[in-house]
Amino acid sequence: MSQIKTYAEQATAYIKQCLLDGTLAPGDPLRETEIARHLGISRGPVREALQSLLLQGLVTGEPQKTRCIRHLTLQEIEDSYCLGGTLEGACIVQSLERWDDAALASVRDILAEMERQSKTAPGLAALSQIDDAFHDALLAPCRNRLMVDIARNSCAHISKFLYYRCWDTLFSPGEFYERHAVLYEAVASREPATIERALLDHYAESGRRLGLVCGKQEG
């Protein structure tokens, strides 16, 4: 059973890498037989991987039919980001009583590292891991893990896999750091309305820019 899981994870990683290097793009079909042959595994783990990617929002399609890489309209991209910002803000506000000095210090340390990395980063791709760490730290105090998972999956996979090449150029590394500094200050204020507005604005602007850049590239 563990071997099948390992093969499924291998197939999932392969498909995501194909998105990152441009081998696969939104709208492209995913053929189980071809993927299985390329990886030297059976179709079962590939089918399991596609189901996992379907749940993550990266793949569309129905059982027994060819699955495809998800393609989003400009409005769907913006809606996904607005949902992500709304939910992340709600997660933080819901857990404000758990935001002690240690929790704030953790986010502040990550922000300081982001600033350091932003000074030499060639683009946003180089800041992807520190970005994930920052948002994971914002969500860590929240005990509603279902809401956390939906918040993270609503747009993170869209930007960093489906439209990775567009996302990499949305902001300069310096702008990227400054935008996250705004989020830290909002959380440090412990004011619910300030936090919710900052998170929503942060994500809405990212979604708007991503939609515009992707639209130009597809046009």
Give the count of helical stretches: 11
Question: Count the strands?
Answer: 3
Q: Please indicate the percent range of residues in DSSP E strands (runs of 2 or more).
A: under 5%
Helix proportion range? over 70%
Unreliable stretches (pLDDT < 50, length at least 5) are: none
Ends apart, CA distance between termini: 45 Å
Spatial sequence of strands, sheet with the most strands: 1-3-2
Radius of gyration: 18 Å
Question: What number is the mean pLDDT?
Answer: 91
Element-level helix/strand string: HEHHEEHHHHHHHH
Derived structural class: mainly alpha
Query: Which descriptor suits the 3D outline?
Result: globular
**Largest β sheet strand count, sense and barrel closure:** 3 strands, antiparallel
Secondary structure layout plus pairing:
Elements (H helix, E strand, L loop, with lengths): L1 H20 L7 E2 L1 H8 L3 H13 L3 E2 L6 E3 L4 H21 L6 H18 L9 H12 L5 H9 L2 H7 L1 H4 L5 H17 L2 H27 L1
Antiparallel strand pairs: 1-3, 2-3
Helix pairs in contact: 1-3, 2-3, 4-7, 4-11, 5-6, 5-10, 10-11
